[in-house]
Design a protein that fits this description.
Strands 1, 2, 5, 6, 8, 9, 10 and 11 form an 8-stranded mixed beta sheet that branches. The protein has a 3-stranded mixed beta sheet with strand order 3-4-7, with no helix packed on it. The protein has 9 helices and 11 strands. With 264 residues, the protein is an alpha/beta fold.
Length: 264
């Protein structure tokens, strides 16, 4: 491994994206096969969930094993609309059962989680204290999911303000790897209110992405993910494979650089 010049050798940034976040796990699998392991992680929404599990010491196969069920209703709970249509109770249960760490400080790898403080209208980067609720707070897409109330504040999905959170770690890593799972692509028809809302969120999320992507030494964005939806849970195995395949391609294209950071 190359000599470290900054605080961390390898940093990993994981975007939000709902079910498309399972591509993060495929990317992790490919990186680990190449000997690349993150020393610090910054994640938001689905990226915060994946990031927490990775930082807790779980590998790609273990993470996919936690999500064997491919029925959407197993991960969410429909409620009478008030502040949201569903609760992410199933995801919360999986995290609670599998996260060994209960606080950020207990994680094996430092983790930064991005959330939107709806009460004060500002972004917040969590990196210490209680873990589970802060990860869930990062993952509650407004209107669709019920917000998380914590510390006398109301929190929603961090992607509202920053869906590719390079900021917490961009100056702390020798090698910065970014994974974005929301390629825009072309959409001809919108068949429901949800599809319109989802497209609008994607357009919002894509703001300033180009500038942020340039801050990464390695940027991975599987183009095939444009065909998958926020709640495409039945297709998580396919999404995982697209993440894996794109990462293998990018790793091959950057093999000389990555060889400097590979763990033997």
């Amino acid at each position: 491994m190359t000599k470290r010049k900054k605080k961390y050798s390898v940093g990993l940034v994981l975007s939000g994206g709902g079910a498309r976040g399972f591509a993060h796990v495929g990317v992790l699998k490919a990186l680990n096969e190449a000997g690349i392991y993150p020393d610090v992680i910054s994640g938001v929404s689905a990226g915060a969930i994946a990031g927490a599990l990775i930082a807790d010491g779980h590998d790609a196969d273990e993470i996919m094993g936690m999500f064997k069920e491919t029925k959407t209703y197993k991960y969410i709970e429909f409620i009478i609309p008030k502040s949201g249509l569903v609760k992410i109770t199933g995801i919360a249960k999986i995290l609670d059962q599998n996260l060994k760490a209960k606080t950020f400080e207990e994680l094996k790898i430092p983790l930064f989680v991005t959330a939107c403080d709806l009460t004060n209208g500002k972004i917040e980067y969590f990196y210490k204290g209680e873990l589970l609720n802060r990860v869930l707070a990062s993952s509650t897409v407004p209107v669709l999911f019920q917000p998380i109330k914590m510390d006398s504040k109301t929190f929603v999905d961090g992607g509202v303000m920053n869906n590719f959170p390079v900021e917490p770690i961009e100056k702390k890593c020798d090698l910065l790897i970014g994974v974005h799972v929301n390629p825009l692509g072309y959409v001809k028809d919108f068949t429901s209110m949800l599809s319109i809302a989802e497209r609008a969120f994607h357009l919002c999320f894509s703001m300033n992405l180009g500038k942020k992507a340039k801050k990464c030494d390695i940027f991975i964005e599987p183009p095939e993910l444009k065909d998958y939806k926020l709640l495409d849970v039945p297709k998580i195995k396919d999404i995982y494979q697209w993440g894996y395949k794109e990462a293998k391609k990018v790793i091959k294209e950057n093999k000389e650089l990555l060889a400097l950071y590979a763990r033997k």
